[in-house]
Each structure stands twice: as C-alpha cells, then as structure tokens.
Amino acid sequence: MTSISVSAIPLSELTLSERQTCNITDSRDCWSSEFNIKTNYYEKTPETGRTVEYHWRITNQTMALDGYERVVLAVNGQYPGPKLEANWGDWIMVHVTNELKSNGTGIHWHGVRMLHTPEADGAIGVTQCPIAPGDTYTYRWHATQYGTSWYHSHFSLQYSDGVVGPIVIHGPTSANWDIDLGPILLTDWFHKPASELANEVIQASTGLPPTADNGLINGKNKYDCALLGSIDPKCKNSGTRFETKFEAKKKHLLRIMNTGTDIMFKFSIDGHKMKVVSMDWVPIKPYETDVIFVAIGQRYDVIVEADAVPGDYWMRAVPQLSCFTTNTQQYNIRGIVRYDSTSTADPKSSSWSITDQCQEEDPKNLVPIFEDNVGSAELDKDFQLSLSPASTGGVLPVFQWTVNNNHYNPNTSAPTIMLINSNPKVEVPDSYSPAEVTSTDGWTYFVIQTNNQQVAHPFHLHGHDFYILGKGIGIYKSLLAPPVLDLTNPVRRDVALLPALGYLVIAFKNDNPGAWLMHCHIAWHLHMGLAIQVIERKGEVKVNRPEEIQAVCNAWKAYDKSNGADGA
Fold first, then answer.
1. Is the pLDDT reported for residue 391 higher than 60?
2. Where would I find the Plastocyanin-like domain in this sequence (predicted)?
3. What's the whole-number mean pLDDT along residues 286-306?
4. Nearest to 181 by CA among 251, 278, 249, 240
5. What confidence tier does 199 reach under pLDDT thresholds 50, 70, 90?
6. Segment 19-38 mean pLDDT
7. Which residues of 215-252 are buried (b: 16+ CB within 10 A; e: fewer)?
C-alpha cells in the first residue's frame, strides 16, 4: 500500500519550491525556476512539503524466479520489491513489518546520505537492531539527492535471498528523453538459501564466495534443468525472460543497477548504443557507449534511442569472469527488447564485441556536471585488507576478512549510534572496527589497499558520496614517488572498484555526523568481516526518536533470547 500526504509543517515556516515546472521532453536539465542539473545538491534541496509514505511487509514466499523453486524473502509478496518513487526534495516514510517465519531484518537505502537522519540508514549493528518477527520499524528520510538507487536488507547475507527493490527519485537529467522505462535490476541468483551457502564458504579451503546458479534481470530468467544432470522436483523449467518495449524513434531512459552479491556485470542491448547520463546519484556529462561495466551496488542511468530496424533484440547481463578467481561458469542472463509488444519470438540479434576484463567505467568519461574540487590531500587513514583462516577451536579453519588486522563483528543488539547517543564520549569497541573522524570541517582521505588476494572489491561508503582521487595496481606509496591524485572535479559516487592487488584513494567531506559503514559490497566478504565504521564527528551525532530504536532493540533482544537467531 502506498499513500501520499502533505506534511504538517506550517507554511509560515516553510517556503515551498516549485515542482517539475520545466522538466519536459526538450528540457530535462531543468527542474524548476530555482533548481536544475547544475544545482549543488549537497547544499541545496527543494522543499516540496510532501511526504511519500509506504507500508511494506517482508514475508517468506515460495517462488520459481528462473524456473527453479525456492523460498524467497519478498517485500509485499514480490521480488524485486515495490519501487520506492518520489521527487527530489520529498520526505520518505516507510513502515517495515517483519513477517518472516524466523530471524530479523532491516532495510538500507543504498547511497542515500541520510543527512540529519542517521538512524534511518538501516545498517544492522550500526544504526539499528534487527526488526524482530512481528515487529515494525518506520524509516524517515529526506530525498536530498535524485536519480536511481536500490534498497536491500543489511542483515548479514539476507539480500541474497530477497528483500531488494529499486529507488527512483525524480529530478533533472543531463540529456533529453521521451519515455522512462524504469529500473533494470541485475543480480546473481542462488538456488540454496544464503545461510546454507555461508557455512560452506567460511569453512571452505579457500574462503571464496559460492558460485551463483544463475542470474536475473528484474527478477526473471530461464534456468535449464538439464544442467542438474538428474531429476530435481524443484526445477520446473518455467522461467521467462524480462521484456520491455521500445517505441520507434523515441528516446528511452533506463535505470540500470547491479543488486548482486558477487558478480560484476557487463550490460548491453544488441544493436543499440547507450548515452550514459548519471552514475550512482551523480549527474554526469553524457557520453556514448555500447556496453557498461557495472560493479555490485553501482547504478547508471542511460538513454537509448530506438533507431534500429524494428524487431526483437537481446538485452544482456554478462558476468565479468575476470573478476573471479575460480568461477568459469557460462551464464545466459538475458532480457528482450521488443519494438512490437505482440511479438513472442526469441531475438536473433548479435552481441557487441566485448573483451572480458575486470573493470568499471573509464573515469575519463565520468565527469560530474556540478563541479566540486577536493582540498590538498594529506592522507588520514591507510587500510590493509587481508583474507586468512581464523582459529575457532573447531576442526575446520574458518576464513575471515580483516581490515588492518581487525575483523568487523559488531553486536547487533547494541548499534553504534545508540552507544553514542547514550554517551557521546564512548569508546566504540574494536570489534565494531571504528575509524574516527573528528574534524568539524574539511576532508578525510583514505587509502584502501589489498595485498594478498587476486580479487577486486566494490567498496561502498554509507552517508556520503566519496571522491575518487586515484587507483592502481601495486602498493600505494604516499611519500616515495606518490601517484598523482585527481583533485579537480574527480569522479564521485558511493561505490568504486578496488583493483585486485591494488589500491584505491578516496576522500569525503566531513559534513554528515553519524556512524557510517564502509564495506566491500561482495556480500560474502562483508559477512566475513570486510568492513569498518566511520565514526564522524561523534559529539555532534543526533539521533531522532531514540525511543523507537530502543523499542526495536528490546523486541529483538527478547526474540533472540527465545529463539537463538543466527543472523543469516
């Protein structure tokens, strides 16, 4: 159920902005007389006076998304979950009720800054406790950014089983379009539940993620039961392809996102070029390409003109096999673009020629339209990533990731912001992997370095866009012949790919007090401890409605005590 209401703020205290007064097919860069594509959205947001309200239920549903039947954790009975849709400047209110048969849940709004609402970030153990079965928690946040993103459970590996959906915040676009075709969610897909796979991973001889059985586009694809080699009653051979329609000569906006847990994708549409107009929440100067490299958590808005010979064309999500160390499985993850919606034929189109390599989009093409420079860099933190077996006293070794030899393992019943709310001078435990930022202005600079695994990591920071100052292969040397850092309007986004055996240099403004998780978005790596918490301006962190968070924590503690929840 979705309802829209006007907030109760007296008009004498709030000057409402115009909404969408000039955003039409030939002027998509405009939003109103005061706001457009060049507006500094970090400092200025429309005040619409509107609250968009949603009521969501998370349940266990038996589904065969690709033709193989399994239990899916659905939002309002569907996967992907309902689209969260609003306008730039709206307030969002989402009531989430946990109706799962067992275990907690919670929802993170990927890439949303959560300016002045840190308690709504949805990071379990950081900004809230899990929502216990039968309990409800309400998230409230302000849409200060615009574009495309997604929401997902941030409770252990849960989003591998479901609890995923798109976010669309309407705002200006850097090129014109006619038809918004909406979100395109790309994901890897497993036929076993995440809890079962997790035990296999951490006790395996390598500690590497499991191999996905398939992939989905907007929750659909086909799985060939013959691949199993034997009869499995769960395999129904009932999968279907996702389909969408192009209108000849029209320009179509597609909102592409990688909502997977392990696979980086190459996205393309046979016979059609794409004009890329935004990355994550950041509008960019348009550029044209025939394929987009999309790391886990990343989003790209693209405009595709229907200028090909009318017919049926494959939409392809091809895994970047070079990002894996062991997975060589050949996937067939496709959707269909039709010019004639009555057609039922499989396309006969040919793919673009694409070299397989583990990469993301060329930073030279990713030029933000609102220009923002970074101050002179003095690196604050240097993070070393490592994967190694840990001693648990058991027979088998258990693999864990560490950052600077620290394994992220917070107490989900005592979230960081509640510790800070109770005592702003509290020393956050080492098991929470805290990295404190105390400066009240200016910038923080991080170097993230991986040194013992031939694996690329898509790193995501909550609460901020970060500015990508440099990346490369080898050891970063800041004093001896340092690499040249890009401080002039660099790429900024909320997910960036750390190269295998390489480094990533990032910066962010110290302008959002809170506790913000920074982690690898390969879900299996986060589950194994590959994360830190950025504790930003601890003495200024303000928690709204702490009594609601405490009530959720009390309900979770009672449930956990009675049921022994496993956190998977």
1. no
2. 58-172, 183-340, 414-539
3. 99
4. 251
5. confident
6. 92
7. bbbbbbbbbebeeeeeeeeebeeebebbbbebeeeebb
**CA–CA gap between residue 334 and residue 356 (Å, rounded):** 17
Is residue 349 within 8 Å of 271, Cβ to Cβ? yes
Strands in 154-218 per DSSP E: 164-170, 179-189, 214-217
Radius of gyration (Cα) for the chain, nearest Å?
23
Q: How far apart are alpha carbons 3 and 89 in whole angstroms?
A: 17
What CA–CA distance (Å, rounded) separates 37 from 369?
Answer: 7
Rounded CA gap, 168 and 182, in Å? 8
Question: Where is 498: in which H helix or E strand?
Answer: strand 495-498
**The 443-450 sheet, strands edge to edge:** 398-403, 381-390, 443-450, 502-509, 466-473, 492-493
Backbone region of residue 566 per phi and psi (left: phi > 0; alpha: psi in -120 to 50; beta: other values):
alpha
Residue 390 is predicted with a pLDDT of: 47
Contact of 537 with 438, CB cutoff 8 Å? yes
**By C-alpha distance, which of 542, 508, 534, 420 is closest to 116?**
542
Q: Any residues with CB less than 8 A from the CB of 152 and at least 6 apart, and which?
A: 107, 108, 110, 159, 163, 164, 165, 259
- CA end-to-end distance (rounded Å), the chain: 28
CB-CB contact of 155 with 123 (8 Å)? no
β-pairing, 492-493 with 466-473?
antiparallel
Rounded Cα distance between 356 and 318, Å, is: 9
Angstrom CA distances, 564 to 104, 105, 106, 411, 568, stand at 11, 15, 18, 14, 12
**Is the Cβ–Cβ distance between 2 and 53 less than 8 Å?**
yes
Domains of the chain, first to last: 1-172+545-568 (2.60.40.420), 176-369 (2.60.40.420), 381-536 (2.60.40.420)
440 burial level (CB within 10 Å; 0-12, 13-18, 19+): exposed
CB 72 within 8 A of CB 32: no
3-state secondary structure 318-343: EECHHHCCCCCCCCCCEEEEECCCCC
- Strand-pairing partners, residue 502, are 473
Predicted local distance difference test score (pLDDT) of residue 380: 59
Residues β-bridged to residue 312: 338
Tell me the pTM.
0.94
* DSSP assignments along 408-468, one per residue: ----TTS-HHHHHHH-TT----GGG-EEEE--SSSEEEEEEEE-S-S--EEEEETTS-EEE
Are 160 and 196 within 8 A, CB to CB? no
Written as one letter, the residue type at 144 is T
